[in-house]
Each structure stands twice: as structure tokens, then as C-alpha cells.
């Protein structure tokens, strides 16, 4: 009899709606002192634009945390898992990849009060618990902004310009009954006004990419950026590849950084490993940006010129191109050593496409000279990394000449 009662009790607890359990606890599952800021990015956006959107929200969360206002300074920024990115295959991976797979979350925490989504879920009884976000604001651009030329910071609740989806982070159990569209122009830090005017504990900003940087290129921006250290395991895999195949190590190449990013200081003395790193963005860039994307023949000629100038023999290739494209480039660079990183099955299975992309980025970041792809955010993040490591700008801000012209990349120098 007792056994039957116990089983019924377990089944009840297991399937019980979280909100019921939470209501019994006084209305909410969440710690009374904390408020949570969630953000979501337009679905087609790639990994490296998303990294930039994070910086905007990290600065918002930090500003709120530093405020004297008690409605703001208990904020927790919830890191949106890397779910269903259009460029990645998720065959071997769970659908929701936590930030810790790619970044050193302790480092992030030294800049802004962040928590992983799974840490937030730990407030709830089980993984099926219903999580109702109290207020959702979907950002959209003011429709008439370009016609009127009025670019003043402003926000206004509005009709939605189009139909937006209402499932968040690809979780079926994360919902909201209170979703509104907010026409918005201004920096992400302005969104703190929403928290000032509301008492909701959970607020989600959807289409977060609409909010801009306010401190782009400032010391604060660079602090946030420097706090985005990669997962240590990915860094070791990249270091191992550099050591084994590229004769490159931090001590030899003058590229060692302090263990803690807050101890970093300004320097321009990095030499880099004895290879040229290139980021060759292909796929949709070849189709949609024909004028800016060079032919492989032209790429090989541009790389040869730099190798000869620097008296180097080795080139590391990071690319999303096909195997055929890579083989063509290897043939065109006959006489030089051409290498790329290919993950072993463990690394591929554990870290997926995102991990491989980061390893490629790290290896390019430590090269003596880097050439990237014009207007690729993948290239931008490598350039920033090299600014942090302390290379001379002329070894970093180079992009391949296109078919029609040679675009000049913007130079964003690090400041401390
Ligand atoms: O990071 P990402 O958005 O930069 O590139 P762009 C998208 C994905 O392509 C990355 C893969 O997350 C990687 O999975 N990828 C690109 C690479 N280059 C490499 C590489 O060298 N090595 C490896 N391993 N992977 C944006 C797109 O791409 O460009 C947008 O996200 C749009 O959808 C826009 O197409 C024009 O800024 O280059």
C-alpha cells in the first residue's frame, strides 16, 4: 500500500506544473532579490554577430548592476544558449549549447552579472517546468526613421511591423502571456528604463540586435570584449595545433596573455607564429558579394606576395569553403606549406561546428600576419583578438582584394 502511495506521489511531483509548485511557495520560483534579463537575436544571425550583441547587453547589465537604484542593481543577464544556429549542424550535439562550451564564463562574470540558462532553470522544480516570462519586448526599427532622418534615441510601444514568433530559445516550456512590440532607436543601455518602469522579475528583449552599442570602441567596450575569453580546452586544442604543425607557442611568439583578463595591459610587441593566417569566407559570400570576393587564383597570388615579403613559407587557412575549394588553393600555392585544422572525432562531437570555428579563429589570431574577408564578422572577431594579444595594426587589418577593387577595412584599435 505504502509503495503505491509513494509511486503516486512521485508521479505527481514529476508531472506537476512548476508554476503550481511555485505558487505554493508564494507565487514565484525565483529568488526574491533577483531580476532576470533575457535576450534573443534574429534567428538567421550568425555566431559572430551574436557575440557582438552579447557585448551590448553585457554593458547594459553592468550599468544596471553598478546603479544605486535597487530596482536595477539586482540584475542577472541570462546567457541565451546557442540553439539552432542556421550555419551549424547539430547532429551530434544537444540543441541548447551553454556558453561554457565556447567561453570562459568566469571571465565573463568579471565584467557583467551573467548566468547560464541552466543556472536560471535550476530555480524550477524540473526541466519540464513551465517558465512564463513576465514581459517580452520585441524590438523593431522605427518605420519612418530613414524618411524623416530623425535618428534621436527613442522608444515607443507600437503595433508590430510584422508577425513575430513566440517560442523562445527553442524551448517549448518557455512562454509569455505578455508580449509587446517596441519601436526602438538607441543604445542597449537605454533599455534599463524598461526595468525602472516595471516590477517584473523576468524581462525578455527579443530582436536584441536592434539595440546599438553606446560605448563602441571605448575602454569599457574593450573590457567587455576582453572578458570574452574562450573556453580553456578550445584554447589548448588550438595551442597544440600551433605547437605541432606551425612551430608556434606563446612564449616564443611574444603572445602570452595574463591568466586573468583584468591584468592585461597595453602592448604592441606580439610577433606571432611563423605563418600567415587567412580567413577565407566562401559559401553565401561568393554568391551574394561577388565584387568583394576574390577568385582563388587571386587569393593565392595575394598570399604569395605576403609570404615572400615576410620571408615565410607557411599559410594557415580558416574557411567555410568546400574541400574542392581548399584543394584548389593548395594546388595554386604549390611550393608553400598550406595547412588547415581538421578536428578529431571527439572534438567534433563535443564542441560541434562552433568549437571548430573558434579553434580556426584562435589559430588565425596568433599568426604573424593575418588577411581576412571584407565585412565578415568572423574576420572582425579575429582582428579584435589580435588587438588584445598586442599585434601591430598593419599585421591585422588586411582583407583580400575583391574582383573589382581592394576594400579598406576599418581599423578599430584597442584602448585601455
Ligand atoms: O560567424 P559568421 O556569422 O560570420 O559565420 P560572417 C557563420 C558561420 O560560418 C560561423 C562558419 O559560425 C561558422 O560556423 N564559418 C565561417 C567558418 N567562416 C569559417 C571558418 O573560417 N572556419 C570555420 N570552421 N567556420 C554572416 C552570416 O557571416 O554573413 C550571415 O552569419 C550573413 O548569415 C552575413 O550570411 C552576410 O559575418 O562571415
Automatic annotation (TrEMBL):
<keyword id="KW-0119">Carbohydrate metabolism</keyword>
<keyword id="KW-0808">Transferase</keyword>
<comment type="pathway">
    <text>Protein modification; protein glycosylation.</text>
</comment>
<dbReference type="GO" id="GO:0005783">
    <property type="term" value="C:endoplasmic reticulum"/>
</dbReference>
<comment type="similarity">
    <text>Belongs to the glycosyltransferase 68 family.</text>
</comment>
<dbReference type="InterPro" id="IPR019378">
    <property type="entry name" value="GDP-Fuc_O-FucTrfase"/>
</dbReference>
<keyword id="KW-0256">Endoplasmic reticulum</keyword>
<keyword id="KW-0325">Glycoprotein</keyword>
<dbReference type="GO" id="GO:0046922">
    <property type="term" value="F:peptide-O-fucosyltransferase activity"/>
</dbReference>
<keyword id="KW-0333">Golgi apparatus</keyword>
<feature type="signal peptide">
    <location>
        <begin position="1"/>
        <end position="18"/>
    </location>
</feature>
<dbReference type="Pfam" id="PF10250">
    <property type="entry name" value="O-FucT"/>
</dbReference>
<dbReference type="InterPro" id="IPR045130">
    <property type="entry name" value="OFUT2-like"/>
</dbReference>
<protein>
    <recommendedName>
        <fullName>GDP-fucose protein O-fucosyltransferase 2</fullName>
        <ecNumber>2.4.1.221</ecNumber>
    </recommendedName>
</protein>
<keyword id="KW-0294">Fucose metabolism</keyword>
<keyword id="KW-0732">Signal</keyword>
<dbReference type="GO" id="GO:0005794">
    <property type="term" value="C:Golgi apparatus"/>
</dbReference>
<keyword id="KW-0328">Glycosyltransferase</keyword>
<keyword id="KW-1015">Disulfide bond</keyword>
<dbReference type="GO" id="GO:0006004">
    <property type="term" value="P:fucose metabolic process"/>
</dbReference>
